[in-house]
């Protein structure tokens, strides 16, 4: 996991002033939020290998390979587990609670149906992914029951969207006190491994890799505001299950709905970006439960008849967990012509706590 810091001069001068004037003060120094900044996202290049988490308050971005993890375990009071939508992972429940009872027959049925392939032709795909807008609201893996016998075995395709395909897994999750126990194995194996996972409430999730156990992915939940990544999205489509088609998208931007961030889109024609200030905030309704509020809406094109491009007629206002409010405007999709390296500018509109 790689972190890059971009601090504008105003923040550096403010921090230096605080340190010089309070050198004998035993109380911790509080550095004010950045007043403005420019972020060139380290998405890794044309194959968009990274997810990138950005703190507007500090100007820090944290890049992590999308293939770093397989499952994310919620640290809240619920017991929920997410699959890796950034690789196009998909899952389906079996009828078994014994992981060793699942094998060749179940694999063959899932492969024949194509249900675990994320594509525009899989009209049932939305049934096999976490809800793209709010994954914890409707995860594909059922909430982990306190009744152990109610927790089923799932077949998991680890995804092959912009990444190399990995062997399917079979998994079962049960509660372990206030944490979890993960049972996992290759889909055709006759034995399995177990991993105990404790909740860490400083984070939104505890991330797990089948190869490496617990791994670092996103920063602490109050230390990032928006994230750029490729990942599973959705669009209305009447012929698909529930009228919604799941598909993979290269340039998604999430805001941190589980860490206290909220966001809203603003039309340039309504209030120009350069004119937007704190007096305009009462006119906005921030969204705190749909992480796709920015989503794919910041760029357009990319179809058979047009190249992808940043939309210049919209921008975004983001409120962080400390009630700092920023206006954010995307500037580019590429750096020196290379995809996977978008950029945006931002400016503090109102300081919070």
Automatic annotation (TrEMBL):
InterPro entries with a match to the protein in the record: HmuY (IPR025921)
Keyword Transmembrane helix in record: no
Top-level taxon of the source organism: Bacteria
Keyword Signal: yes
Segment forming the signal sequence: 1-22
Annotated PROSITE patterns: PROKAR_LIPOPROTEIN (PS51257)
Keywords: Signal
Protein name: HmuY family protein
Record organism: Algoriphagus oliviformis
């Amino acid at each position: 996991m790689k972190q890059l810091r971009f601090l504008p001069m105003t923040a550096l001068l403010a921090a230096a002033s605080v340190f010089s004037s309070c050198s004998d003060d035993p109380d911790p120094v509080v550095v004010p939020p950045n007043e403005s900044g420019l972020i060139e996202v380290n998405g890794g290049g044309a194959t968009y290998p990274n997810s990138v988490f950005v703190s507007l308050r500090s100007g820090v971005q944290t890049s992590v390979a999308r293939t770093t993890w397989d499952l994310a375990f919620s640290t809240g009071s619920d017991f929920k587990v997410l699959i890796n939508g950034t690789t196009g992972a998909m899952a389906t429940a079996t009828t078994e609670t014994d992981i060793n009872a699942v094998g060749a027959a179940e694999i063959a049925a899932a492969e024949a149906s194509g249900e675990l392939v994320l594509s525009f032709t899989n009209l049932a795909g939305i049934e096999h992914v976490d809800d793209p807008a709010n994954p914890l609201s409707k995860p594909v893996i059922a909430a982990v029951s306190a009744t152990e016998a109610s927790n089923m075995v799932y077949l998991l395709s680890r995804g092959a969207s912009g990444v190399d395909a990995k062997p399917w897994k079979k998994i079962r999750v049960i509660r372990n006190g206030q944490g979890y126990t993960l049972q996992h194995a290759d889909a055709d194996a006759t034995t399995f491994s177990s991993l105990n996972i404790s909740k860490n409430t400083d984070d939104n999730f505890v991330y797990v890799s089948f190869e490496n156990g617990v791994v670092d992915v996103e920063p602490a939940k109050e230390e990032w505001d928006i994230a750029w990544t490729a990942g599973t999205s959705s669009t209305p489509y009447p012929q698909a299950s529930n009228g919604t088609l799941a598909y993979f998208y290269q340039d998604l931007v999430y805001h941190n709905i589980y860490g206290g961030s909220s966001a809203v889109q603003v039309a340039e024609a309504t209030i120009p970006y350069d004119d937007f200030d704190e007096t305009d905030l009462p006119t906005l309704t921030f969204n705190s439960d749909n992480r796709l509020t920015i989503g794919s809406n910041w760029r357009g094109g990319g179809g058979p008849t047009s190249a992808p491009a940043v939309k210049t007629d919209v921008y975004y206002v983001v409120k962080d967990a400390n009630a700092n409010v920023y206006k954010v405007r995307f500037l580019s999709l590429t750096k020196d012509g290379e995809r996977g390296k978008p950029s945006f500018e931002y400016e503090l509109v109102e300081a919070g706590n």
